[in-house]
Design goal:
Helix content: 40-55%
Radius of gyration: 22 Å
CATH superfamily: Cytochrome P450
Largest sheet: 5 strands, mixed
Strand content: 5-15%
Number of helices: 18
Distance between the termini: 26 Å
CATH class: Mainly Alpha
CATH topology: Cytochrome p450
CATH architecture: Orthogonal Bundle
Number of domains: 1
């Protein structure tokens, strides 16, 4: 939803109920369309009238306390909705598809060490430098397609230079990540062609990584200098054999890094910038903040803008056993075992019971009100790095004089599958030059 200002409640639920009574599939289609085009109004009405929204196909959880409860009860609300698909693509168990297991505990701990928080400044500088290179190249033309030529280019370069995973080429790595992420997180209908494409992409990706790992090990044995990237750190690490952290575990965990970054980082950059452009006064203050030496003030503009249209609005879970949600409160609800549950961080961040003046653009919101990187057991391991990349790229964009969105028909965010931003053309310099 791109509209600025307070989302208004209306008769969406009444319309849904009427449609459900005569055509359940049409009712499902209504909800799916509202999620894409009018999600703030839908969630506002749900929080007020039906905070746990039960449909024949899924249950949506909308209030902050309930969303965080679902996301922090990994033994009850599992990732079985997408975990098996990731395992199929990567050819083995992946930590993101495991809840409260030794595999998750061990692999997550190892990757937290490898994604050293002390690298944040280094990665942020890399992202800013690549963004400036892209903007410099586009400047003579007076316009740039930001999603692929800036945002995705930065993400793929971070994969190459920091993760140590460039792929055979950026286009191939981009293709791999899109195929696997689409199946894991956007293929709710279980389309077999999408699943097959994911498995093919994952097989190609892990085969590539096995070859690269063999090359790294050979280089280490020969005493050659290697870059200090995540892949090299993993290749150098000698862990006790009893832990089960063999080369295949390294390959699968390396494959997971771009899956959690190449789609979500450019998506977040696109949505946040789009929201800033919708608010001229806020944009003017963000441009001023972008020029400051300390980026902390500017970063708050990015996170508040992203709250108005987060890239991931729903996080799929499966209820493994009957659970009383919000027990002891008036909205206490039994979630039956087997329910496909969709906790909605996008809704939670507008819950007035927790977030003051949720429809106002405020820079003083505490970090714990932000659910962009998930919550609980499966919160993003690289949030510190990804956050620095997202904010720094947008800071470099807004330091360019006269950057602006183009009017229709060239302007506006174009999305693939209604989810992935695939085109966002910006004018550079004066409006007259770019137009």
């Amino acid at each position: 939803m791109g509209a600025v200002g307070q989302a208004t409640t209306g008769g969406l639920l009444d319309r849904y109920d009427e449609t459900l009574a005569r055509d359940p599939m049409a009712a499902f289609g209504l909800v799916r369309e509202w999620m894409r085009t009018d999600w703030r109004a839908l969630f506002a009405e749900l929080r007020e009238r039906r905070p746990v929204f039960v449909t024949p196909a899924f249950t949506v959880v909308t209030r902050f306390a309930d969303v965080t409860e679902v996301l922090s009860r990994e033994s009850v609300f599992s990732v079985r909705a997408f975990g098996p698909r990731l395992d199929a693509a990567l050819g083995g168990p992946f930590m993101l598809g495991r809840d409260a297991t030794p595999t998750n505990w061990r692999d997550k701990g190892l990757m937290q060490v490898m994604l050293d928080q002390r690298d944040t400044a280094r990665v942020r500088e890399l992202a800013g430098r690549v963004a400036d290179e892209a903007l410099d190249a586009a400047w003579p033309a007076g316009r740039v397609e930001a999603v692929h030529d800036v945002f995705r280019r930065v993400a793929l370069r971070v994969c190459a230079d920091y993760f140590g995973f460039p792929g055979p080429d950026p286009q191939t790595l981009s293709r791999w990540t899109r195929a696997v992420v689409t199946d894991g997180f956007a293929n709710y209908a279980g389309d077999p062609e999408i699943q097959a494409a994911s498995v093919r992409a994952g097989s190609e990706m892990t085969a590539y990584l096995r070859d690269r790992l063999a090359e790294r090990r050979a280089a280490l044995r020969a005493g050659r200098d290697l870059p200090d990237d995540v892949f090299t750190r993993l290749a150098r690490t000698d862990l006790p054999a009893g832990l089960g952290m063999d080369d295949e575990r390294i390959v699968i965990n390396m494959a997971g890094l771009p899956l959690g970054f190449v789609e979500s980082a450019p998506g977040a950059m696109t949505e946040a910038l789009d929201q800033l452009f919708l608010r001229p006064q806020v944009l003017a203050r963000a441009v001023e903040a972008a020029a400051e030496p300390d980026p902390a003030h500017f970063d708050r503009h990015v996170w508040e803008a992203l709250r108005f249209n987060p890239f991931f609005k729903l996080l799929p879970r499966v209820c493994e056993r009957d659970h009383v949600l919000a027990a002891g409160t008036p909205r206490s609800t039994v979630i039956p075992a087997g329910t496909f549950v969709l906790p909605a961080p996008a809704s939670a961040m507008f819950d007035p019971d927790v977030v003051p003046e949720p429809d106002e653009f405020r820079l003083d919101r505490p970090d714990h009100h932000r659910l962009f990187f998930g919550y609980g057991h499966h919160a993003c391991l690289g949030a510190h790095l990804a956050g620095g990349v997202v904010c720094e790229v947008l800071r470099r964009v807004l330091r360019r004089p006269g950057v602006h969105p183009l009017p229709p028909p060239d302007g506006g965010v174009v999305r693939s599958g209604g989810i992935f931003p695939d085109r966002f053309v910006l004018g550079l310099g004066s409006a007259g030059k770019a137009g």
